[in-house]
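Researcher: Quick one. three chains, 1275 residues in total.
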Amino acid sequence: MAYGSHPRKEDARFIRGQGTYIDDITLPGMLHGAVLRSPLAHARIESVDTLAASAHPKVAAVFTGADLRQRGMAWMPTLFGDTQAVLATDKVVFQGQEVAFVVATDRYAARDALELIDVEYEPLPPVMDARKALDAGTSVVRDGVSWGDDPPEPPRNLRTNRIFDWSAGDAAATDAAFAAADVVVSCDMSYPRSHPAPLETCGALASFDPTTGRLTVWATSQAPHAHRVIYAGLTGIPEHKIRVVSPDLGGGFGAKVPVYPGYVCAIAASMATGRPVKWVEDRSESLMSTTFARDYHMHGEIAATSSGRILALRARVLADHGAFNAAAQPSKYPAGFFSIFTGSYDIAAAYCEVTGVHTNKAPGGVAYSCSFRITEAVYLVERLTDMLARRLSMDPASLRMQNLLRPSQFPHVSPTGWEYDSGDYPRALSMALSLAGYADLRREQAERRTRGEYMGIGISFFTEAVGAGPRAHMDIMGLGMADGADLRIHPSGKAVLSISVQTQGQGHETTFAQIVASELGLSVDDVEVVHGDTDRTPFGLGTYGSRSTPVSGAAAAVAARRVRERARLVAAALLEVSSDDLEWADGKWQVRGDPDSGVGIASLARAAHSSLELPPGVDGHLDASAVYNPPNLTFPFGAYICVSDVDVLTGEVRVRRLIAVDDCGVRINPMIVEGQIHRGLADGIGIALMQAITFDSSGNCLSGSFMDYLLPTALECPSPELGATVTPSPHHPIGAKGIGESATVGSPAAVVNSVVDALAPFGVTHADMPLTPANVWLAIQGRPAGDT
Amino acid sequence: MQVPAQVEYERARSVEQALDLLARYGPAARILAGGHSLIPMMKLRLVHPEVLIDINPITSLRYVELAGGTLRIGALARHADLLAARETGRHFTILHDAERVIADPVVRNWGTVGGSLCQADPSEDLSAAFAALKGSMIIQGRGETREVSAREFHTGPYETVVGPGEMLTEIRLPVQPGSGSAYLKVSRRAGDWPVGAAGAAVLLDNGRFADAGIGLTALGATHFVAAEAEEFLLGKSTDDDILARAGEIAAEHAHPVSDQRGPVDYKRHLARELTIRVLRAAIARARQTRAHERTQGAPP
Amino acid sequence: MKITVTVNAVDHTRDVEPRLLLIHFLRDELGLTGSHWGCDTSNCGACVVWLDETPVKSCTVLAVMADGHRVTTVEGLASGSQDSASQHGASQDGASQHGASQHGASPYGADVLDPVQEAFAECHGLQCGFCTPGMMMTARWLLDNNPAPTEAEVREAISGQVCRCTGYENIVKSILRASSRTIPGGS
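Model:
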């Protein structure tokens, strides 16, 4: 069995400092690009004077929106069907928006030249509060007037900041359930805007060869094939002459799914100058202009009987999408998978409405390991469940246990239409409570309170829906979310697997080798994994939404099984028996009941390439391909418990313990799975306590550097205590589910629940993130987060 | 990546040479020590010096020395030097408390004490600690050297009394036998600038305050000092209600500003709470020192 | 101005602008791309290298300040590794690193790795690898000065360095694992 905590193949280069990240790549004659950005959140551009910059001795070219318009590249499609400015043509709609692009012979000169560009702006009132975006008299971010004929008419009425109204569930049934309930608890809660902030920022190196007409783009991309589609449309260069290479990525977490204007600028500049052009954003550019996450204003209501049976759930959400609708998610899901908001509970009725609006902020929304908005959904139901427990004076663990779906209820169709594939929820919660020593913690809490010490115990139970997805329902830009895998078996039996998904640290080169090795009885070292290069890999939508293992992992397994079946025919020829008489055992084909007759893939590959007369169905080698169209999503789940201590006089929170029981089905490499969970738990601490992108009322981003956008350090993150259950996915070829985002989705609610639990003696029932010392103190005073 | 604008560079190998260079270039020059405040500001293009005078080669300015009842800290001492100096920890626990929460270990390896002080950020930790300790700064000019109280060193946010053509060369702290000191900081995260912080150094005589220094940072205290609270404490007991009153007084005289770290009333509340807590910690340490002296028979 | 910096025991003389940051000197002038930059403001520690005997954040040090000094980078951690400018410079084939198997005598390559490097690989102390060089440089310094640190001391030592992948758990484990090894290169 090749599964297990195999050391990672990719580590050999990384521990030597030999990774190749975007800024490590240098080409002969390469120019360096820099982007001039808008200092204002909302303004009309009166003029752009680039003369002085162009005269700088080291500057090769300067581009404005007008220049790109001539090339038909001033606007680009977003992954959600909107149109985004590459360089502003006549109006800027968020602080940090791209206005001009300079290319120079070195990066210092490119930066210097930005200061030589003179832009005159006529300021417009910015829309900074999503809750006021639809008010009469509020200025319209995308007013259409300024768009003119360029780009082509956008797909909706532009005389409003409203992007969409969307709902799921049965409103009437939900209303009826609420009317009949003994208890209703409701709460306004905001899930603040955050940023994925991978440690490596985004960048691209474009190289256009005028002779061959070929364009090569190295870019920080979680979805190289999707990017190629966009580049082909933008440049007019056909896809077969475009190669997109995503080199080693220094983290992604959703930040590297979209195409960013800087990438397109690098391409346009390379096509214009005939030289390679590299552009890599700095940290401020990254925080201020690349994709943000969350920014959901939610009103949630939960209805229950007095004995704690949850009857119904209702939510109204205002979604702040920023200035362009650039959320990278399946096109039929404008609010992502938020409608899975009934979570892990047996709830008869549910209804949610989401309204998306434009504001004068950077575009994005779906990023940061959110599994297409399940982060927000889990937070809502887990906060409401805790509030219900408080109202009913019930223990929050007991209330959850009482309402969790039972194993016998799977597959379970939720009231909003999701078909949960498999689960044993009570077992996971029991394990978490036992690992935590829950009863003892409650005793300790009571005892401490008598001494004026405030500790909190927070529980979160989540269910995710990952592995988008069935192509009948899920596409991006009309491209169905099915991914390919090509498996080549060399004559020696060594294998090369090419996949469409792209590691950003998840260890695909190891995990996918393990999948193939396991299916074919090979050593993990005998399988090489190729990814991140559109010239060398089959088409697919890329890595995000925890879809690599559910989709591409399945494709790899299916391809390997095809190889195995082909090998069976060869084995039959070799052993001169009917293939029906063969069985696969211990990584070999053998005559039934005769282990000594076993022939492994290496021998069969040699035979398949030899002069052996092959039966029909084998062309002369064992190679196989697969495109996997998942029949359903996979539904990983877990139970998390956070123990925190709160200094109620200063407002400081210390997370003491994090207990996490995850069930992601079959674990191919438990070491890597646990590493993914570790990260997400740190995200939970960061998002709950400190990570927030904020703005002042003038539209200035107040979180434009790591001095103000705080990320947790080793001192804030306690050693996680992990537990695992394994409930295989019944429809996935190897029973695996996604794990990349579980902990980021599940843990913020546990952290917040623990802090609110600690503050219970002060009558606090809810406090909005981030729970900074000031916001905790404000909550105790009965004031909202950020109150002045 | 952000990069600084073009700048000239001069290297000073002695204080005299540094002063000559300052005289030659005038206000267009900035002294470069650890650079951990200056270089990020240059990268953000918020400051545009024409000339940098690198004083790192003046190794004679890098020291932490105890002699004749005074701790002398060279302006070029790295934060890590201060944290590593045993005598500092023995006599000035407050400095070790503070240094442990200034930035992070790698920044402390290169950032300098003098550079931090001269940057004069209103949230800087050592400024409050030195104010609490009633230290002084040695400022050298061509032909003239003057000593300025730590409490008069800062003239406002990002401004000090160091004139053009002058440089800070040394910080002096008087050793006060039997005293105790402490520093406490509330921050949003390890390594962050403080939401608020307080330092205290106290000397007790028969259970009463014979001397008290209280420094506050990020909380809008004039010259980083809670002077009114200090005055109130003199001759008073260390009872809880006295400390609470001192906290109230410190809060009343603090003028914090509202920002991302919190609103004004919260910060004022912190001024009170941190003053009380840090006084308690300093008192406990003063008592420990006394007990230690009694058992050892002599001051350490 | 002309400077000479001894990087990983090799003298390099270059004529540079005074404003050139040390991280760019290492990466762009010398082709030593193992050290990364991540934040611009000395908050993330991806750029940590040693200046003489101590780790510094090289995004906030000017190259001219290193004139006449020694710098040690991740490329200098293992012994017997080639000075790697040639390996890290131009790569026309950005994908060639994928699958470039480096297996040699040791499980992780032919050179003699520092125990810190081995421990990071063994304990899954890295995922995307971007913070790893800076983390390892600080770890080596910590263990040189405190061969048997506590977990709290390890956490404190790396508290100025951000990792977005591991939640720090396995980085801490890696450094503790390396601390138990006294013979460099041993296992």
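Residues 72 and 234 of chain A are 7 Å apart (CA to CA).
Researcher: Thanks, that's what I needed.
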